[in-house]
């Protein structure tokens, strides 16, 4: 699973995701991609599950690029613990995704396989997505 | 190169965020024509038509003749902004093209003979490093695309710009011999070959045991 090598601080505020993506909204590497339609916090497990689903459907041919990185530590309190006594321990890493963000790109496979692979990958994600492809040149 | 396409536009008297949004609400697309030492001219185009033109392909290498209130401007698209979520056009920049001018244009790269490449036949993946190449071209002879021949390429090969035949009168803006594409070995291929070899060895072993 993806996670930062080291961080300056162990815990972060929850925050809110406002607006649409300013960058990372175009396909940069591959022919096909998966674009987020909603603001959502996508965790590292989802990203890894989606990557596996995509590469399996592509029969491990072609190439996959992951355009998001989970760099937000999310903490939670243990069960049956009363409120207070400070913030919980970091539990997992997540990525704040804004609408319009390209999350995955793939290349080296036919459009049919790309659509199916990204459909299966999208099913693992907690965010609504759309299949996109490079503008014909 | 293709012949210049005709476009009809109207001049905009108001510019800015509010005016541009008002135009978009009325099915029009704000755009601007600039360059050639003249003042910038804000215009409005039909949004549906421009959406079709952008997605039809070859938009950035096509010369347009835009008729604005009876006056014709010879232009080339320089940039277009798309909605980040829904990918419909928000704005287009056009550059005025004078006769005999040399332009810097991002020309798309097309790959041919991929099916006859031994590297791709053996499971290699065409890794496109540059989907477009920035070329200096004469304004009256803008190439639609650059053809890169993949015939005879092996896995692990790199195709550099020096090995690509460029259209006459054009030259790349980058001085060094940059890579256009590579034939990469997919991550799964090594594991797949190992698995196949293991299966063959197992079958041979089972056959040998049976014969004993």
From TrEMBL, chain A:
Keywords: Ribonucleoprotein, Ribosomal protein, RNA-binding, rRNA-binding, tRNA-binding. The keyword tRNA-binding applies. CDD domains: Ribosomal_L16_L10e. Coiled coil: none annotated. One of its GO terms (cellular component) is cytosolic large ribosomal subunit. InterPro entries: Ribosomal_uL16, Ribosomal_uL16_bact-type, Ribosomal_uL16_CS, Ribosomal_uL16_dom, Ribosomal_uL16_sf. GO terms for biological process: translation. NCBIfam families: rplP_bact. Belongs to the universal ribosomal protein uL16 family. Part of the 50S ribosomal subunit. This is Large ribosomal subunit protein uL16. It comes from Enterovirga rhinocerotis. The lineage of its organism: Bacteria, Pseudomonadati, Pseudomonadota, Alphaproteobacteria, Hyphomicrobiales.
TrEMBL record, chain B:
Pfam families: Ribosomal_L25p, Ribosomal_TL5_C. The gene is rplY. Keywords: Ribonucleoprotein, Ribosomal protein, RNA-binding, rRNA-binding. HAMAP family: Ribosomal_bL25_CTC. One of its GO terms (biological process) is translation. Belongs to the bacterial ribosomal protein bL25 family. CTC subfamily. This is Large ribosomal subunit protein bL25. Part of the 50S ribosomal subunit; part of the 5S rRNA/L5/L18/L25 subcomplex. Contacts the 5S rRNA. Binds to the 5S rRNA independently of L5 and L18. InterPro entries: Rbsml_bL25/Gln-tRNA_synth_N, Ribosomal_bL25/Gln-tRNA_synth, Ribosomal_bL25_b-dom, Ribosomal_bL25_C, Ribosomal_bL25_long, Ribosomal_L25_dom, Ribosomal_uL5_bac-type. The keyword Ribosomal protein applies. The lineage of its organism: Bacteria, Pseudomonadati, Pseudomonadota, Alphaproteobacteria, Hyphomicrobiales. This is one of the proteins that binds to the 5S RNA in the ribosome where it forms part of the central protuberance. Residues 7-94 form the Large ribosomal subunit protein bL25 L25 domain. Residues 103-186 form the Large ribosomal subunit protein bL25 beta domain. One of its GO terms (molecular function) is structural constituent of ribosome. GO terms for cellular component: cytosolic large ribosomal subunit. It comes from the Bacteria.
């Amino acid at each position: 699973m993806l996670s930062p090598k080291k961080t300056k601080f162990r815990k972060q505020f929850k925050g809110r995701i406002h607006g649409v993506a300013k960058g990372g909204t175009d396909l940069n590497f591959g022919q096909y991609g998966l674009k987020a339609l909603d603001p959502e916090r996508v965790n590292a497990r989802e990203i890894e599950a989606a990557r596996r689903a995509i590469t399996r459907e592509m029969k491990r041919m072609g190439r996959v690029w992951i355009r998001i990185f989970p760099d937000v530590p999310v903490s939670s309190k243990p069960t049956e613990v009363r409120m207070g006594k400070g913030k919980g321990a970091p539990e997992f890493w997540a990525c704040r995704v804004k609408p319009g963000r390209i999350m995955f790109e793939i290349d080296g496979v036919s459009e049919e396989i790309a659509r199916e692979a990204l459909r299966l990958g999208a099913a693992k994600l907690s965010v609504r997505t759309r299949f996109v492809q490079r503008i014909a040149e | 190169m293709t012949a210049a396409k005709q476009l009809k536009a109207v001049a905009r008297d108001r510019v800015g965020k509010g005016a541009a949004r008002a135009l978009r609400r009325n099915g029009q697309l704000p755009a601007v024509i600039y360059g050639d030492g003249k003042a910038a001219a804000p215009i409005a185009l039909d949004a549906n038509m421009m959406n079709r033109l952008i997605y039809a392909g070859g938009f950035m290498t096509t010369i347009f003749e835009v008729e604005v209130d009876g006056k014709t401007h010879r232009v080339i698209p320089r940039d277009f902004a798309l909605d980040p979520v829904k990918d419909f056009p928000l704005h287009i920049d056009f550059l005025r093209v004078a006769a005999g001018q040399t332009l810097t244009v991002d020309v798309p790269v097309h790959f041919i003979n991929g099916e006859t490449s031994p590297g791709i036949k053996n499971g290699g993946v065409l890794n496109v490093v540059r989907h477009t190449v920035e070329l200096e071209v004469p304004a009256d002879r803008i190439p639609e695309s650059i053809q890169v021949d993949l015939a005879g390429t092996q896995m692990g090969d790199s195709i550099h710009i020096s090995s690509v035949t460029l259209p006459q009168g054009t030259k790349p803006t980058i001085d060094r011999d940059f890579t256009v594409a590579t034939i990469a070995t997919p991550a799964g291929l090594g594991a797949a070959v190992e698995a196949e070899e293991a299966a063959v060895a197992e079958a041979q072993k089972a056959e040998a045991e049976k014969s004993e």
